[in-house]
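Reopening closed ticket. The problem is back. First fold of the pair:
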Amino acid sequence: MLKLNKKTSGLWSVGILLFLSFFTMGCQETNRRAPFFATGIKIGEVTSNSAIIWVRLTKEAERVSEEAPMPEVFYKTDSGEWIKRPGGRRPDLPPKVVYPEGHDVTNIEGAVPGMEGYVQLKYKEKGTQNWQSKEWLRADKSTNFTNNIKLKNLNPNTLYEIELVSSTDRKKTGETIKGSFTTAPMADAHKPISFTATTCISYDDIDSLGYGLKIYDEMEKLKPSFFVHLGDILYYDDLGKTAELARWHWDRMFSLPAHVNFHKKIPSYFIKDDHDTWMDDSWPGRETRFMGDFTFEEGLKFFTEEVPVASPNYRTIRWGKDLQIWMVEGRDFRSPNTMPDGPDKTIWGQEQKDWFYKTVAASDATFKILLSPTPIVGPDRKNKNDNHANEGFSHEGKEIRNFLAEQENMYVVCGDRHWQYVSVDAETGVKEYSVGPGTDAHAGGWEADDKRPEHSFLRVKGGFLEVKINREKGIPTIKFIHRDVAGNVVNEEIIQK
């Protein structure tokens, strides 16, 4: 028998612990099997009894790091010369994407190659052991290895836990990723509700390199009931010249750690605008050579596959007695910006407008909020011609503002503009809150000292908007709180019914 003195025994114990530690680490690493979930999950379209869980299978557990190179884009002039994009303009010239030697779309910065396989969702109410399982779903290249899994017959105002498991063959399991969400309360329930919203996220302007947007951590601290992304979730314009590069934009953005962490905890509603559909100020039928092989129609398809979203894209959700939200679609049905203004020129399309007017009129919610990817009130820059605050769509804009003015306690929260503001339409009194861009670096397009009579608040910086609905001493109250990228309050308005 081996006899150990106290010193030797201590060293032996340390050695055993180190061995077990390395062995355990090795086992853990060995147990990690593809497919992975490097782009996380997204919990979307939550109602009082349903939700959609988005998931994607990946070949690797992590994204390609920021140290990897990036491709360059050149445009062919009419004289045959290849040039870089001139002065920020979007030339109507055919592009060419040039990758560094030995690289392609699978190994440039932020790349997260997908992997074929299967995924299964399990869910249960928090505090119970009654796990329910959905059937295994196959993921393949046709949808960028994504799936949108619908949950129905949920209980209102209930915290649910979810687990997603990957597999190559539905027998041997790979990775597991967990999340949670709370369903909306019933329409007659009095319950405090809050949500956060932002817009315009350019990857080049992300304020925490390799980690993601600072506002995601700040929003999570507030524990909102839900989050709304009001469009321009990413920007295809510079590099989205092929379907593969368009998909890479989504993989790159949503594999950032801050984004993965946020979206597995906070349910979201996603609304698209021009840059995350195709290019700046895009509309159906617009012609350009600037976007190469990537088409407007592909952009419409990809959006429905890269985020959890309902069909049709315009929808209304009730969150208890005191809040109902409307999310509108601003790209699918619009007329060309170049069309002369008049009663036939539209952004929403007649079917969507009829739905909006009907559902708003039927609502008995205390507070009603229109969540629009573009401004309804403004003011906006004179050189813009893409939204209801512009002269190019003034006929429909006036029609919508007149309708909103007839509603009690209804407000507009808008995206698209790269500055925060609160404005009141001089003719109708409709009030609009612009959430502003997600980072300071992306702010601009308006002068900070150009505060108009319409403005009660103006700030040309980034951040987000927080909206809180509660009853104070029995009186329904809504608060609109603009915050900066660090979560600090920069403006607050309190409105009681």
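Second fold of the pair, where the issue appears:
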Amino acid sequence: MAECVTIPNHILSAIASHRQVCSEPMAAFFYDLPALAAQGRAMKAALPAGVELYYAIKANSEAAIIDTVAPVVDGLELSSGGEITRACACSTPRPWVLSGPGKLDTDMREAMTRGVEAFHVESLGEVARLQAIAASLDHLQPVLLRINPALPADLSSRLRMAGTATPFGIDEAHLADAVRAVDDAPNLTLVGFHVHAMSHQTCERRHQRLLASYLECWPRWRALAHQPERVTQLNVGGGIGVNYLQPSAQFDWPGLCEALGERLAAMHEPPRVRFEIGRFLSAFCGYYVIEVLDTKVSHGEGFLVCRGGTHQFRLPAAQGHDHPVIHLPCDPERAIEGERRSWTVVGQLCTPKDVLSRRQEMTGVAVGDLLVLPLAGAYGYNISHADFLCHPRPEQVFVRDSHESRELKTRGQRHAETAS
């Protein structure tokens, strides 16, 4: 699996430079910011005319990541008060929307006072609360209603957000009531609909069919509004998956965009479509680097016990996959001549669930070698239980260019460091 992934030379140089200043065995994240910007530009360039790309910052909300993505995308999608703070601190101000269930009144009020573009409304109760807050501020607020639609029976994914019983959105059967509630709210304006039905989609054709089902429903949904001419936006969410098991076989984003453009061109009064992409934007820029502390064999199975673990990089355990692993030996010649065998990569936690990857074939692995887990830029460190067992938090190195100028974030403190 690892042979499908290569590590850029400037990331290898950053890893080597960082290791020289480590007083303890290494566990750190490295983020390739030029690669992140390039991924965003490529995704944006593939979009049909009039289709927008927002970054869902829940995938990775580190300041350096947001600052790199913001100049490239059309805006940001947020889901909490904390994310509002981070987005508003961005060096390149961008439009932003507030989504998600369980919004606090304080978050909604703060969002309005800080210039939120629109809210994605999840329930009739949220319509009422949003109207009350907007009225108290004498503010006219655009909103999109999030729909939990009926879906074709054969369309499913590992993580369904709609088409079944979920806490997300308003059942399509009750959409007319929700539209009426917004139309009757003097401080709210319905401008569109939001549908995010499935995550971890790795097949372009399946996602193309999913978007087609939304667009087929669009005229019917729009006609429910008292003033349908004001309803122009269709936010189709994200859900584009990353193929961690076959890194060389990724989602065909240009193919999806081409098919979407053809369908929109054939529509009478098509909506302004917006994507909110997180994982597929930021995953490819990240590398989790851990040092081998011990090698052992238990009941015939080889284990590499490494600094760090799932408390720092929860992604493999959360998704139930064996992450690709790249071996960086301290002594390449020794590694070539060493034994080739299957290893299970684990961390330092006192639980058998602390597994990053099972049965990876590697040659000549020894204590002190480094292992690199690529595709670690999204839903990795930021969803992890970093305080478990009170281990120190991993360092995060943001590599800004091939000359290794980088920003280092260590245990909540941020400072600038330039490699010699």
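Update: turned out to be a display glitch only; the data is intact. Residues 157-163, 404-420 have pLDDT under 50 and may be disordered. The first strand starts at residue 27 and ends at 32. Please close again.
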